[in-house]
Specification:
With 301 residues, the chain is of the alpha+beta class. The chain has two domains: 6-167, Ribosomal Protein S5, domain 2, CATH 3.30.230.10; 169-299, GHMP kinase, C-terminal domain (Alpha-Beta Plaits, 2-Layer Sandwich). It is built from nine helices and ten strands. Helix 1 crosses helix 3 and helix 2 (94-110) packs across helix 3. The termini are far apart.
Length: 301
């Protein structure tokens, strides 16, 4: 099409360090983007709408376009192409990254600018309201602000509070994941929501506990207490086990990290973990240990 307008949007994966999955329940979390994994959406004006992506990703992109079009009263026909290397359904925010990337491309195409909080809110609406996928806001907040975030989602009476923290406060981190046991975050959040609303004491108490761990983790980061941060990450796994039946294949990643002296936590709701690189352990030793178990590992920057 002559004179077609083009635009590109990108969003990175994210890893939850502490507090997950309390973000959907008025809790507190700490999360960080993982720049080694990203989703990129390229769009251009077209005579007929077309989305070049797999069925699940196409659904996310189309829902984002529809929501954006109704919100901003703009709905031109678009040809859309997706490129992503974020492992799907392992808990690294792959779906939300596709939505955020699409919304950023749409904003660029239409000359609009959304503040990070507004972008995160719109992205959450795409999944929860357009597609009916249960989930909390954490992924979109971290991906919209792009950094290390402490998030206090409050009890609904006040606005959520998002605090940028200096990524230099972090110890050296790694992310390991397995694609052999994918699990939808919507499945996890949906079950937790039902139990939380019924007042299941195991869920209610564990949610309170993991939120407190995130608040304590903020203090550890500001104080440079990486040992304390690692202990809190281990406590988060224990609290998670009290409210969710952990897949043994996912828990095995935590056990590998522990055997190497590396504190670790679930990065989300699937088969990925985030851990602290222990001093004195060579990178190849860490990578080889996970490779032996059929898992991939990246060091975050």
């Amino acid at each position: 099409m002559s004179g077609a307008r083009e635009a590109t949007g990108r969003a990175f994966a994210r890893a939850a360090l502490l507090g997950n999955p309390s973000d959907g329940f008025g809790g507190k979390t700490i999360g960080v983007i993982v720049r080694e994994f990203a989703a990129e959406v390229h769009l251009r004006d077209a005579a007929e709408p077309r989305v070049d992506a797999g069925a699940d990703a196409r659904e996310l992109i189309e829902a984002a376009i529809n929501r954006f079009g109704r919100r901003h009263r703009r709905a031109p026909a678009l040809a859309v192409a997706l490129a992503t290397n974020i492992p799907r359904e392992v808990g690294l925010g792959g779906s939300s990254a596709i939505v955020i990337a699409t919304l950023r491309a749409l904003c660029e195409r239409h000359g609009l600018e959304l503040e990070p909080a507004a972008l995160a809110e719109l992205a959450l609406e795409v999944e929860t309201e357009e597609l009916g996928i249960p989930g909390g806001p954490q992924d979109r907040v971290v991906q919209a602000y792009e950094g290390l975030l402490y998030m206090d989602f409050g009890d609904g009476s006040d606005e959520p509070r998002y605090e940028r923290l200096d990524p230099a406060l972090l110890p050296a981190l790694f992310v390991a994941h397995t694609a052999s046991a994918p699990r939808s975050s919507g499945e996890v959040h949906g079950d937790l929501r039902r139990r939380f609303e019924r007042g299941d004491p195991r869920v209610v108490e564990a949610m309170t506990e993991v939120a407190a761990l995130a608040e304590a983790g903020r203090g550890c980061l500001l104080d440079g207490d990486h040992d304390g941060l690692g202990e809190l990450m281990a406590a988060n796994v224990a609290a998670r086990a009290r409210m969710i039946e952990l897949d043994p294949r996912h828990l095995h990643l935590i056990e590998i990290a522990r055997s190497l002296g590396a504190p670790a936590n679930y990065a989300g709701s699937g088969g990925a973990i985030v851990g602290i690189v222990p001093e004195g352990l060579r990178a190849d030793e860490l990578r080889d240990a996970f490779a032996t178990a059929g898992c991939e590992l990246v060091f975050t920057s």
